[in-house]
Amino acid sequence: MMIVSIVIGLVALAVAVVAVAMKEYIIAAAMLIVAGWQVVNFLKWKKCL
């Protein structure tokens, strides 16, 4: 689960960067929210160990 969370976060950041380059700011904002959410999920998962 940890690896999946990290991969989703990194992919979301990559999509956000591409979206900013294409001036698609709504998509970029959404992907940054997803990346942030994955950080929170990762930290919650790590606490449960």
Describe, in plain words, how this protein is organized in 3D:
By secondary structure, this protein is mainly α. It has one domain (2-47). It is built from 2 helices and no strands. The chain has helices spanning 2-21, 25-47. Helix 1 (2-21) packs antiparallel against helix 2 (25-47).
Sum this structure up briefly.
The chain has 49 residues and is mainly α. Helices cover 88% and strands 0% of the residues. The protein has 2 helices and no strands.
Tell me the helix content.
over 70%
Write down the Rg. 12 Å
Q: Give the biggest sheet.
A: none
Average of pLDDT: 93
Provide tags for this entry.
single chain, 49 residues, mainly alpha, elongated
Per-chain topology:
Layout lengths: L1 H20 L3 H23 L2
